[in-house]
Amino acid sequence: QIYKIRTSWDYGQHIEKESKEEYELADKEIIDALDQNNMLIEYQPKIVAKTGELAGAEALVRWEHPTLGIIPPNEFIPVAEESGVIFKLEEWVIENICVQMNKWTKSGYDPMPVSINISPQHLCKDNFSNKVEEILKKFQVSPSLIELEISEDALIKDADTVNANIQHLKKQGITVTLDDFGQGVSSLTHLKSLELDHLKIDKSLIDNITTDKENGVIITSLIQMAHGLGVKVIAEGVENEEQLHALVEKNCDQVQGFLFSKPVKTNDFEKILMSKVLQ
Ligand code: C2E
Ligand code: CA
Ligand code: CA
Ligand code: CA
């Protein structure tokens, strides 16, 4: 099957910004990319808001396409989701991260939690939590170091399967985070009913945290409510000091964004792992 994608992304120097041509991207190409190691994972640090210490990292996948250059996830994840290749892709991501974590342990780095984005389709799949368990056992990675970021779309889709998967993941000791909170129709009910561990406030709410007074009030009470439910709060897309100060003042637990670091390749993340403080 063939899918059309836009190639107007502004990503590095590999691709001309002006080219708005449509390329045909086949799901089979994604499978080939996985087999040929043309996918790569970048890591973006997560930071303890109050201290500036490294709290962990979010893994973000990229495609190094032989002719098109680096393709960002927003361009190919939808293709993978539509075709079902997403299962194979995300299993590859989880395995790849396990291998990397084992390398870090061997090299003497302290254990560092890594967050992985999981597509709603995958979370709706019957044996998803079993598959994750299997992979972690195979690579002997502690579930306590794995955090899965899920979006609200998943929770609305197929409630029973999703609930069962989440409960089994949590039982293993995996941290489950509600991602992109505030981007769509957001509700706190899932935090309580599913006993989710973390809440990540979407960049769109963080963008005007200091300029939009009402928005600031919403974030303040959001954090208070989450804490009341025993849920940790992470803010994504933090780009300046003012936003950081506002978040620290509001007792946000963790922050992530270009103010600290962009997503970086493994060897650059290792430099961060060595120094451990980003503020
Ligand atoms: P997301 O989970 O909301 O991840 C945050 C995105 O914002 C990332 O884009 C990150 O590079 C970018 N970002 C982080 N800090 C800042 C900042 O301060 N300013 C700005 N302007 N941007 C910032 P990226 O890497 O292009 O990923 C886009 C989306 O692709 C992610 O959004 C996530 O939903 C999805 N994605 C990435 N990897 C995977 C994966 O393995 N599986 C699935 N299902 N989705 C993935
Ligand atoms: Ca995420
Ligand atoms: Ca987001
Ligand atoms: Ca997301």
TrEMBL record:
Residues 23-277 form the EAL domain. This is Diguanylate phosphodiesterase. The lineage of its organism: Bacteria, Bacillati, Bacillota, Bacilli, Bacillales. The chain holds residues 260 to 538 of 692 of the full protein.
